[in-house]
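Appendix C: a fully annotated inverse folding record. The material below is reproduced so that readers can follow the format used throughout the book. The structure is listed first as tokens, followed by the designed sequence.
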């Protein structure tokens, strides 16, 4: 398992159940921190709800839908997904495709799980989100490969 992957599963059902568990733990942790601040440093709390303070909490579920392998991956950050995809560039031989972006768009499924408050605050970005569970929504996002020229003189 890659160091960037939070967890990997062999079924979608397992991955979804695990995501729910991760989200509940994240919520419990955030509530515990908020209670501590309310008791010890009330001036440190700047918002009314836990969700407002933790609007940037996210999880990602990534898998291929072409039957290549039946592995479902969970990540905690966009950066981790990007780093993992760099590893998969060679494993999946993406350079062999005529159009890597079409392959990524049609074959790779990436679900972003985010706080509901994101949809409220940034409706343009998160307008297509659907409710997932208490305090959390999901939306499918796409991956694109951007080539940048690189030159070196030896």
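Designed amino acids, in order:
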């Amino acid at each position: 398992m890659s160091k960037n992957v939070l967890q990997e599963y062999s079924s979608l059902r397992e991955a979804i159940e695990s995501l729910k568990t991760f989200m509940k733990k994240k919520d419990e942790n955030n509530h515990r921190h908020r209670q501590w601040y309310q008791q010890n440093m009330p001036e440190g709390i700047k918002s009314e709800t836990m969700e407002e303070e933790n609007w940037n909490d996210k999880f990602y579920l990534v898998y291929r839908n072409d039957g290549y392998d039946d592995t479902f991956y969970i990540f905690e950050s966009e950066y981790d997904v990007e780093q993992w995809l760099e590893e998969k560039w060679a494993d999946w031989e993406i350079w062999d495709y005529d159009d890597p972006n079409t392959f990524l768009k049609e074959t790779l499924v990436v679900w972003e799980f985010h706080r509901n408050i994101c949809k409220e605050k940034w409706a343009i970005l998160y307008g297509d989100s659907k409710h997932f569970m208490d305090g959390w929504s999901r939306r499918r996002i796409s991956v694109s490969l951007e080539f940048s020229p690189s030159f070196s003189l030896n």
